[in-house]
Amino acid sequence: MTDISALPALNGQQLARADIIALAGTPHALIDCDLEEAALAQLDLTGWQFERCNLRNADLAGAMLERTRWQGCRGGGANFTGCDLSDAVLTGCDFNNVVLRRARLEGARLAQCKLTGADLSDLRALEIDMTECLLIDARLPGLSFRKQRLSRIDFSQADLRKCDFRMASFEGCSLREAMLDGARFEGADLRGADIGGVHLGDASRFRGATISRDQAGELLAELGLKVR
């Protein structure tokens, strides 16, 4: 990771597409900059760093964002459709309702990020690393988390249809009221997950997974049965 102090930096400025294009060719560090509603689609921002920037409703569709670093940014409603975020690192960012359809996130790392209501449909992601992230009501159909260690991720009410959680381990996570049609959990350790609100009809989706006695009791309680 490049030290932010090693990059040419802009601090506290309001920037538009023309301003960013004028800086093209050299990665920059943007600190406390305002990029709200900026039209940045298709730009090559490889290696740039963004710290505490405002990107609300910005358009970065198709942008090249490989190896970018994002720290404490706000980007509610931003459009990252089809962009390349390979090997990017996002920490402490608020990207509620962001659109990441068809984006590439191979090797990306996300920690302590808010992605409530985010659209991650058709995401291209291998070895994506998520920790302490809110994905409440997010759309992630078909995404693979196979063999991953999932720590403190809130998938409540998320669209997880056809997701692959085989041999994944859950620690402090929530699957409460998530959509699980077609999801696979064989070999997964669900003892560290909140599965409240999962209907008994969904229990068969957990076939081959490990659950706790308390979790089994929650499922059986729907039939009026008690586990003693």
From the structure above, extract its key features:
228 residues; mainly beta; Pectate Lyase C-like; seven-stranded parallel sheet; three-stranded parallel sheet; 2 helices; 7% helix; 5peptide_repeat
What features would you describe in this structure?
This protein folds into two domains: 24-128, E3 ubiquitin-protein ligase SopA (Pectate Lyase C-like); 141-227, no CATH class. The N and C termini lie far apart (53 Å). 43% of the residues are buried. The protein has a seven-stranded parallel β-sheet with strand order 1-2-3-4-5-6-7, with no helix packed on it. A three-stranded parallel β-sheet has the order 8-9-10, with no helix packed on it. β1, α1 (17-22) and β2 form a beta-alpha-beta unit. The chain has two helices and ten strands. The chain is 7% helix and 16% strand. It is mainly beta.
User: Would you count the extended β strands for me?
Assistant: 10
Write out the CATH superfamily name of the largest domain: E3 ubiquitin-protein ligase SopA
In the CATH hierarchy, what is the class of the largest domain?
Mainly Beta
CATH topology call of the largest domain: Pectate Lyase C-like
- Spans of at least 5 consecutive residues whose pLDDT stays below 50 are none
Radius of gyration: 20 Å
What is the subunit arrangement here? Answer: single chain
Taking the sheet with the most strands, its summary is:
7 strands, parallel
Second CATH tier, the architecture of the largest domain: 3 Solenoid
